[in-house]
Amino acid sequence: MTATDPWIRRFFPSPGAPVQLVCLPHAGGSASFFRPVAQALNPGVEVLAVQYPGRQDRHREPMIDTIGGLADQVCRAVTGAVDRPFALFGHSMGAILAFEVAVRLEQAGRVAERVFVSGRRAPSCHRDEQVHRRDDAGIIAELRALSGTDQQVFGDDELMRMVLPAVRNDYRAAETYVCTTDHRLRSPVTALSGDDDPKTSQDEIRAWSEHTRGAFERERYPGGHFFLVDHAPDVIRLIRERLAQPAAAPR
């Protein structure tokens, strides 16, 4: 692994890859979530996984509890790290962050080849969710329900004490997010979802089409919020195939 910026992790550097994929983790997640993706896509796609502050090797740094604040910092890091055609992939909270980063990059003259948004309703779809206001037991119940956390973690009190502040912070960022831009991306958008995900409906996934002037497609998989873990080979194949295609012209 190499890193020239605390925000970016290159687990498998591939300077000869024709395209880079910037990956943005879910609430409470870290860059290491995408290490298997980086390995699977190497050497044809170089994965740049984003590491948010307040976790793992950045655990001593102050966390950022707004999507806008995160997007500003990630945009700066991506601008310095990307040196060829690139795409964005975000899961859950990472999906709306990918959208906001893509908006900022387009406004600066850099257009992603494609934006993959996974397990998250469109920015224009709001739900009144207050998980970040729950006590620790309530947040743990939420994590258990979504089945995205190794069950052994719940039995490790010390590890849970380390993880919960980042989870609460990120839920606050995602749940207080309000889309304030009418910018429609020039990039094509691929929206991925689980057919039994309590966090987003198929109508909310379809609404992503209103946030791009490029091509839009939906890919639906069996499973819940973390369907992409159970269907990793299929998701990775989709990413590889889409990044091998020329981007469609925006509408």
Automatic annotation (TrEMBL):
<dbReference type="InterPro" id="IPR020802">
    <property type="entry name" value="TesA-like"/>
</dbReference>
<dbReference type="InterPro" id="IPR012223">
    <property type="entry name" value="TEII"/>
</dbReference>
<dbReference type="InterPro" id="IPR029058">
    <property type="entry name" value="AB_hydrolase_fold"/>
</dbReference>
<feature type="domain" description="Thioesterase TesA-like">
    <location>
        <begin position="22"/>
        <end position="243"/>
    </location>
</feature>
<dbReference type="GO" id="GO:0016787">
    <property type="term" value="F:hydrolase activity"/>
</dbReference>
<dbReference type="Pfam" id="PF00975">
    <property type="entry name" value="Thioesterase"/>
</dbReference>
<comment type="similarity">
    <text>Belongs to the thioesterase family.</text>
</comment>
<protein>
    <submittedName>
        <fullName>Alpha/beta fold hydrolase</fullName>
    </submittedName>
</protein>
<keyword id="KW-0378">Hydrolase</keyword>
<dbReference type="InterPro" id="IPR001031">
    <property type="entry name" value="Thioesterase"/>
</dbReference>
